[in-house]
User: Which sequence fits this backbone?
């Protein structure tokens, strides 16, 4: 574990969750600092959602320890829940209520007086650029607007910790970038954000640090940019598949990792930037593309390309 967890806002030590003979989370350790955006990445079934549910105090631990703001989740769940805002992946807004009434009703769970919840709702409507939708029924909103209302609802109790589970799934680029902007503004205001996402671009754009899970274990942790450089280098060369080209690349880059994906050869090298450019200047490869390495390259290298259901 690379992060010192002594002063972490959220701290897990040997955190474990089992369902009979199945281990969903396998003795993991991590710390999330106050005011950072921390990503939980991994294929389906990796243990991300189970970990988040234990942080939310809605799923009991099997073993280990989990502390939130110095409080044990097994002993002070009520206080912890009061300081957390949750934006789930699924749309669980009440379709028979208006936007503002969804917020006011939810605020009752935190014993927020109606006058106060109405004031907070007004501020959040302005923050999310939905003031004109205040009295519109949820069923009449677009998917992007519903995601913004879910995020507003998660903020109604003015949480110190915001948990976002796939916050932009299914949204168009405009709506996605709007939500990204709001998440970054919340982080600047000191809100600690725990994010799960399958969009690697989203994780790279928002997260200060992240951990990548697979089969209930942490397989890597760190800053997105650092992880990319560590595992796949700075550049990726892609060329159309050809056996002669494959043989040439193997002999030219003995230390490189070569993968065949969709009839294309991808070449990953830890060598400094510029190595592939020299090769391309000397030889003409069919369909050659030289691009920056990214977090998706890293994720696939660490977790594999096999489809998970």
Assistant:
């Amino acid at each position: 574990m690379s992060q010192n967890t002594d002063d972490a806002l959220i701290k897990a030590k040997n955190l474990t969750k089992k369902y009979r003979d199945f281990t969903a989370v396998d003795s993991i350790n991590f710390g999330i600092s106050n005011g950072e955006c921390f990503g939980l990445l991994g294929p389906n079934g990796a243990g991300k959602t189970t970990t988040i549910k234990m942080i939310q105090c809605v799923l009991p631990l099997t073993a280990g320890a989990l502390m939130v703001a110095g409080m044990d989740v097994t002993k002070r769940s009520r206080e912890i829940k009061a300081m957390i805002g949750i934006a789930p992946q699924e749309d669980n807004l009440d379709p028979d209520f208006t936007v503002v009434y969804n917020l006011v009703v939810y605020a009752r769970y935190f014993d927020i007086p109606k006058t106060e919840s109405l004031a907070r709702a007004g501020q959040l409507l302005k923050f999310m650029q939905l003031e004109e939708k205040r009295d519109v029924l949820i069923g009449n909103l677009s998917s992007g607007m519903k995601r913004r209302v879910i995020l507003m609802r998660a903020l109604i109790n003015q949480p110190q910790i915001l948990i976002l589970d796939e916050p932009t799934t299914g949204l168009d680029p405009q709506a996605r970038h709007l939500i990204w902007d709001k998440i970054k503004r919340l982080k600047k205001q000191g809100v600690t954000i725990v994010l799960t996402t399958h969009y690697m671009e989203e994780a790279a754009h928002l997260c200060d640090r992240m951990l990548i899970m697979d089969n209930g274990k942490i397989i890597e942790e760190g800053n997105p940019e650092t992880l990319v450089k560590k595992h796949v280098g700075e550049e990726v060369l892609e060329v159309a598949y050809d056996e002669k080209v494959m043989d040439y690349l193997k002999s030219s880059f003995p230390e490189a990792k070569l993968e065949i994906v969709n009839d294309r050869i991808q070449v990953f090298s830890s060598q400094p930037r510029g190595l592939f450019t020299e090769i391309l200047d000397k030889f003409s490869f069919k369909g050659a593309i030289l691009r920056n390495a990214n977090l998706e390259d890293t994720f696939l290298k660490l977790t594999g390309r096999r489809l998970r259901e």
Notes: The chain has a mean pLDDT of 90.
